[in-house]
Amino acid sequence: MRTFFDPRQHDHAPAMELHNGAYVPYAEHRGRMENVLEALSDIETPRDYGLEPIRRVHRDNYLEFLESAHKRWVEAGRTGDAHGYAWPVVGRRPLKLNRIDADLGQFSFDASSPIAAGTWSSAYWAAQSALAATEAVLGGDRSAFALCRPPGHHCGADYLGGYCFINNVAVAAEAAIAAGRKRIAILDVDYHHGNGTQDIFYDRGDVLFVSIHAYPATDYPFFWGHSDERGEGAGEGATLNLPLPRGTDLASYMAALETGLAAIRAFGADMLCVSFGADTFAGDPISQFALQTADYTPIARSIAALDLPTVIVMEGGYAVDALGANVAAFLAGFG
Ligand code: SP5
Ligand code: ZN
């Protein structure tokens, strides 16, 4: 399977994140990719598809903010990574506030996703990797893998969060639609609910979003991913959330997966995009499912049995020493 990664995706290097009331080392670090790159061979760098495909997903004011935020942070006399501390919980009027702290609150939803000097470059090239994998599949490959870092599924059209800045899987889906595909299914198998992807396509009938994740009553991102969220307007019924309890093992995971796959079959997709997070692994330091490395192969085999052209996009996975093996086990299921 062709695999895409750009070395500029390493540039994003926030130092710390807020976790349980203390600053701890940033979990989504470049060592993750280094472990995966060692486990895979024949990595290709993407070509540059430009900003246009990213603008199909994200609002211009958000992209302008993201590209300039760290520079504005430095100009404001700050050191370290750009970080919000006030959020407009009640409502978000389209205010034009010329204060970096206000904009950090306006365009984010959590306190664990700092913007560092290299963030824009890395997020841009992660999206280009997703576009290269999409181009491979549109060109006739059965499947392709975008080794995206930073990940993307937590960020929406105009907000970042959850270590995510550009929604790579949404960029891939929109690129496929722009190339003439009519109905796209997105299957999100990261441990956390893909709230950004859900928001982006919530009122769309041409993109089915199916997510298997930890119950948002116990796990991040809390405010999305509940089973009664089913889409709205033209998108009503085109969102399917399948939350599972902490401790979930392969048997109960597979039961939920079969439910999700049946929905994808019924939808009649002409292409599949998979948000693959390996944070469902038993040894993940921030997650609580019980999947083993070998489990990723039968999971992937079931997904491959949909027999759809498939773009696989990397999301989370923080058990760094096992990450390459877990990714390789998943990709092996696509044979
Ligand atoms: C893409 C993805 O998997 N994002 C997950 C975001 C979860 N963020 C909230 C959990 C914070 C846990 N921080 C632990 C840091 C340990 N160094
Ligand atoms: Zn995750």
UniProtKB/TrEMBL annotation:
GO process annotations (BP): epigenetic regulation of gene expression
Cofactor: Zn(2+)
Domain Histone deacetylase: residue ranges: 31-332
InterPro entries: HDACs, His_deacetylse_dom, His_deacetylse_dom_sf, Ureohydrolase_dom_sf
GO molecular function: histone deacetylase activity; hydrolase activity; metal ion binding
Pfam families in alphabetical order: Hist_deacetyl
Keyword line: Hydrolase, Metal-binding, Zinc
Origin superkingdom: Bacteria
Record has Lyase as a keyword: no
Family per record: Belongs to the histone deacetylase family.
The protein's name: Histone deacetylase family protein
Species assigned in the record: Sphingomonas ursincola
